[in-house]
Amino acid sequence: MSEKIKSKIGEELYNKILESGLKAEDIDIVTDGSYIPRARFNEVNGKLKATEAKIDDYEKQITDTKNLLKDNEDFKGKYSELNEKYKNDLALKDKEILNTSKRYLIEQSLREAGAKHTSLLMKDIDLESITIDNDKLLGMDKITEDLKTNYSDLFVVKNTNNNLQGSNNTNTDNDINNDPDSEDWGDLLKDL
Known about the structure:
Elements: H1 2-9, H2 11-19, E1 27-29, E2 35-37, H3 38-112, H4 118-122, E3 131-133, E4 136-138, H5 140-150, H6 167-178, H7 185-191
Helix pairs in contact: 1-2
């Protein structure tokens, strides 16, 4: 190799390099004909390779970060979608629970008012128009009066004559008690 370098740079320059303390193995030829000491070349080459490795590592980190950000955005979207669905489901369940409570209280109120078949009367009641305040129905009195007017045959008529007419009242009482449709459903439901 030393002969090759000597022929490229000339014998005089080659001798000056050797006199300066460098060895022939420490010299390498570059394309423009100038020379670089091998140690310096190796040092710069090592730094260059380390820098290229860092660049590759940073590019990989950037790609990973972009993927994480994309996954994070997907996660945020899925989270907000599931959170909205949960809130809607919760609101529906709350409304269902409230309507069940209303139905129970309405049927209880109708039984107390003397209704025979509360399930038939429930079809004419708008649950949204009734509100509950401390387990009491607001607006139920008007609805009960309307139902008694429209469906008087579905309500038991309470006799307040105190037997003033004598035997005539007892016959009608017997007829009512013998009629299977005139059963007091409130009493039957209380037994359940």
